[in-house]
User: What shape does this take?
Amino acid sequence: MWFWSNLGTLANSDLLSIYVLMHAQSSRYHPEISETQNCSRPPKGENMDLKGNDILLTSFPDGTTVTFACNTGYESAGGSPRITCTAGSWSSLGLKCQRKNCGPVREVENGQIEYRPGSEFGDKAVLICNPGLVIQCYQGWMGRLPVCEVTQCESPPVVEYGSFSPNREVYDYKDTIVYTCKSGYTSNGSRQLHCSDEGTFKPEPPKCIKVECEDPEISFGQLSSGARPPYGYSSTVTLQCNAGYTMIGSATVTCGLNSQWWPGLPQCIRNSNITFFFLFQGTTVALRRKLKMDRLNICLDN
Assistant: This one.
């Protein structure tokens, strides 16, 4: 009391000195009065970040309040998104972020949806149809949902010297076409193709080839019956030997795809040059045919 009652007797300079001394003494016991502390960038929780322009800052003044927001594809699972800087420290963050659930895709015709592994952000929804399509979940299912449509094939391959039917611009899955070769040509391969689930015709188309066997002429023999020239694929003739000759080989032959007679033209051998003898021993018969230039041994097992 004496201090305040005697202030009037002090000079102005003395009053200023007393004020400074009192302020200094007060600051020793209350440091916050003389200096405040900023906060560094606050630590963020999982799948979240600072909201607005605060994301660009690295230092925050005392008393600053910032707000966090969940990242794209995530949503709040509860808790306060705000924290405050106090004396250089941030308050606790309560916000929790969880993956957003995209929910079910609408029902589709001619197919079904399979979720891999679920319907949350980042998962996939696979449309099972013919063929299967995939859409990506990103803040909801992205893009227009594909539709299960019938697979189609474009025009079949062109075959030289051949044509196909039916002839259409577009063919649906499992549609069938048949190739036909021009007159004088034969198909080598499958004549029937189908539109596959890959959008192409299978199997490979045939080739139309020219098949023509030479006249089936043999020495000491002649044509007996069968087709007449020209000899195309599958033409069949029967041959016979002249009198006094015996035929070695098949009398009936057919023109094959390689333009050769099958199983090969026979031979006509003069009878005086053929000797038969039979040797019976157990169940085996040995037959020897002696030809002009060669000897042939044949064993027949019963």
